């Protein structure tokens, strides 16, 4: 009885061992199949080409991004150069405009071109006197009186002036001859009318300063009339010639 029982146990033990062996073999076969299948899948030619193409596109994209960065930096440098050029050009334009304006002002002072604009008119007249009592020279306008007015107007910024319609410039000469004055060779009797183009709000106060030109003329018995003009027209010297 015991021998029969032992044989039964040995048989069951062998079956159990075989079952475990087959189970392990099955697991190993399944794992091997999956591994081989995955390798075959990775090594699939179509998928391999797609992978290589993707890597190529990625590399090209990186190169393009680097190139775009270089072009952006280059564009910024060009824009900086353009701004510098524009600034230089603007400065040259401003300097040119300033030079043109200075040249125009110089031509106005020289009397080379006509001048028209607001300004002032100063009239100098001889005062009344009694020849039997007073010295007549103390009551007439001399070139010194005219020059005071002209110099003060120049300092105040007058762009151009005339004396009795005769345009004057920096080379003009004024000489007194008795009751008349000579301006650049032309003789004019009193009253002497000095017209100047410039800002009346500047020229007029300059002549009216306390102790300035008009006060001095009045002390010399000169009759002075000052008018602010909306428009004064001065001819060019060549026009007179």
TrEMBL record:
<keyword id="KW-0175">Coiled coil</keyword>
<dbReference type="InterPro" id="IPR010273">
    <property type="entry name" value="DUF881"/>
</dbReference>
<feature type="coiled-coil region">
    <location>
        <begin position="54"/>
        <end position="88"/>
    </location>
</feature>
<comment type="similarity">
    <text>Belongs to the UPF0749 family.</text>
</comment>
<dbReference type="Pfam" id="PF05949">
    <property type="entry name" value="DUF881"/>
</dbReference>
<protein>
    <recommendedName>
        <fullName>DUF881 domain-containing protein</fullName>
    </recommendedName>
</protein>
